[in-house]
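Risk mitigation, structural track. In case the binding assays with pyridoxal-5'-phosphate fail to produce interpretable data, a predicted complex structure has been prepared as a fallback.
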Amino acid sequence: MTPKVARYLAAHQPATPCLVLDVDRVEENFRRLQAALPLARIYYAVKANPAAPILERLVRLGSFFDAASWPEVRMCLDAGARPEAISYGNTIKKERDIAAAYAAGVRMFAFDSEAELMKLARSAPGARVYCRILVGNDGAEWPLSRKFGCEVEMARALMLKAGELGLDPYGLSFHVGSQQTRTAAYEAAIAKVAMLFTDLTEAGVKLRMVNLGGGYPVRYKAEVPEIDDFGAAIMGAMAEHFGNALPEIVIEPGRFLVADAGVVQSEVVLVSRKGEDDPVRWVYLDIGRFGGLAETEGEAIKYAFRTPHDGTDEGPVTIAGPSCDSTDTLYEKSHYRLPLALRDGDKVEMLATGAYVTTYASQSFNGFAPLAEHYI
Ligand SMILES: *Cc1c(COP(=O)(O)O)cnc(C)c1O
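Fallback model:
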């Protein structure tokens, strides 16, 4: 938690549950990432947290933006982004949304299938397009399975076709999965993309760009490698495979820029046991899966907690949300421990919750209002 967030919580005592996010920290993270990968252009993955104060700060810093939808394109434009700085990176788009983005001046689009390429040819003529290839997601705590990307052979054929359709075959992309804890995942993906890049260049398609996607991890409960380790591994692999004919390098960080800038504060609603001798206490918070903590699904993302009793004796707990839905249990198998002194009414903080939380909050499930947000 940054000192600014701590001061805000102490001074304002905002109603819980709420997210308090320090926008200065986003700027620091942007600069750290720039320092780790100075040759890369940063396209912020807006879906991680599309709040206007974040987008506006990133516009001032000269960031580019990766938008997942037409409304996200609009949010970037409203925050002052130039349309040339926006990539419409979702491979699944309605054709009318492609047309709307194109009319607004967006000229960079992702695809991973022939049907999507045809939509782009019709509704974004002449635009720069890049094909997303399937790569391994091992090591990612929030993997993406096979939903996005296509096999290399198909990508090859589609990039050839893109040129024939009057589009600009700009480059290739991949995404190694979110909260990727292994630098080797990027090295393997770069090797794969480089082979296709070279192959297409020999076939007469002059690609210029490689998009390494997002995935750069942040510290939750467990340590992760430093961003400089990812930078070094990535640039090592780029140099190994491209020599001194380096293409333009694009990265699409989401989580890395915003997660540790934010803290969710919650109130303990109930601490109970299921039997007199049961060693495990159930701790029910006023935020749960439907209040925005969607990434606790499968206990994939393990947030760290702060309580007013830290440093005193702890015992095992199961942590759950407030709604009348049994899937609204956050951590049952991950061996969380919290102070024995914890009781209802205590405020607890969940650290590094600035990414993938606010927009996942349900509208009013069980009557609970969506998560309140404070950008400072
Ligand atoms: C979600 C997403 C990102 C951002 O991923 P993070 O793990 O938050 O860095 C980047 N690129 C694409 C295509 C995505 O879908």
